[in-house]
Design brief:
seven-stranded mixed sheet; 302 residues; Metallo-beta-lactamase, Chain A; alpha+beta; 2 domains
């Protein structure tokens, strides 16, 4: 502790930046202060790393979704109510329920359980509250509206803060890595619908949990969003090219389409398997790939 961290205010909203603008495992937490209540959104390791006197207070805690980095600082607010979208709410009830959300096989599951407890301070909360898309938290002079934005998880949500004209995009983080849909509770086509929804969001400020921080202006936001969304198209194009000869799912996993081959990520194979299975299934439905055996696929026309 003791390292200075940045923060910046946008009306009633203050963004508490994590290390390197919220580079994973850190993130950028939001605090929205109204006349009657203050809410903290996605308490991160950046809040944990601050001196206690520098941490914001909270009357309640809102979570964009139930992932380890977005709940890492929630234990600091044990006395406040915690809120999740109803679709992600089961994940905070117990460690086993959270692990089911990721869907990693053993021995990764057990190692990840240790990580989320020791590094990310996972604390089960059976009394957490559910919200839905369209719900509004009226803080007195400031309001936070929930926008359900699934794909990353089933319950992943944006938050619109008024009158600040700020939309918090959570893990639609506009990074060069692109969309992450590699967990058991992720869905590629839901994520694409969320990206279409995001294109219609008109705001002055767009905030992300990782990497970017805050973007001003719709034009700059749309440019970043287009590059972010294009990663999906690129992955699929590379997959089709790779299927110029029959390949199994395990071939695809080893080739790496989400992570680089040299990336030392313990759960990379699990993420590749889930992510690229979603691509394979939809390419097969669309008639763009065909099975040459029960376990291998080939691009049509090859």
């Amino acid at each position: 502790m003791g390292e200075p961290f940045e923060q910046e205010s946008f009306g009633a909203t203050t963004v508490y930046f994590g290390e390197r603008r919220g580079k994973y495992p850190h993130g950028n937490s939001l605090v929205v202060r109204g006349k009657n209540e203050t809410v903290v959104v996605d308490p991160s390791l950046g809040l944990v790393a601050r001196e206690p006197a520098a941490r914001p207070r909270a009357d309640r805690v809102l979570h964009s979704h139930c992932h380890e980095d977005h709940i890492a600082g929630s234990f600091l607010y044990a006395a406040a109510p915690w809120h999740f979208h109803e679709a992600d709410l089961p994940g905070i009830a117990s460690l086993e329920a959270l692990l089911d959300l990721y869907g990693y096989p053993e021995p990764i599951r057990s190692a990840w359980a240790k990580t989320v407890v020791e590094r990310f301070h996972f604390t089960p909360r059976a009394d957490a509250h559910a919200f839905r898309g369209g719900d509004v938290f009226d803080l007195g002079g400031a309001r936070v509206e929930v926008i359900h934005a699934p794909g990353h998880t089933r319950g992943h949500s944006f938050f619109r803060v008024e009158p600040d004209g700020l939309v918090y995009l959570a893990d639609v983080d506009l990074s060069s890595f692109g969309p992450y849909y590699g967990d058991a509770w992720s869905d590629l086509e839901d994520f694409e619908r969320t990206l279409a929804l995001a294109r219609d969001l008109d705001a002055r400020w767009y905030a992300t949990f990782h990497h970017i921080g805050v973007i001003e202006g719709r034009e700059a936001f749309l440019e970043r969003l287009a590059r972010f969304a294009a990663v999906i198209t690129d992955r699929e194009a590379r997959l089709l090219a790779y299927l110029s000869e029959p390949r199994s799912l395990e071939d695809v996993v080893r080739h790496r389409f989400v992570y680089r081959p040299q990336d030392p990520v313990a759960f990379a194979d699990a993420v590749e398997r889930r992510s690229m299975s979603l691509h394979l299934w939809r390419l097969e439905r669309a008639g763009r790939v065909e099975r040459t055996s029960p376990a291998t696929w080939l691009a049509r026309g090859r």
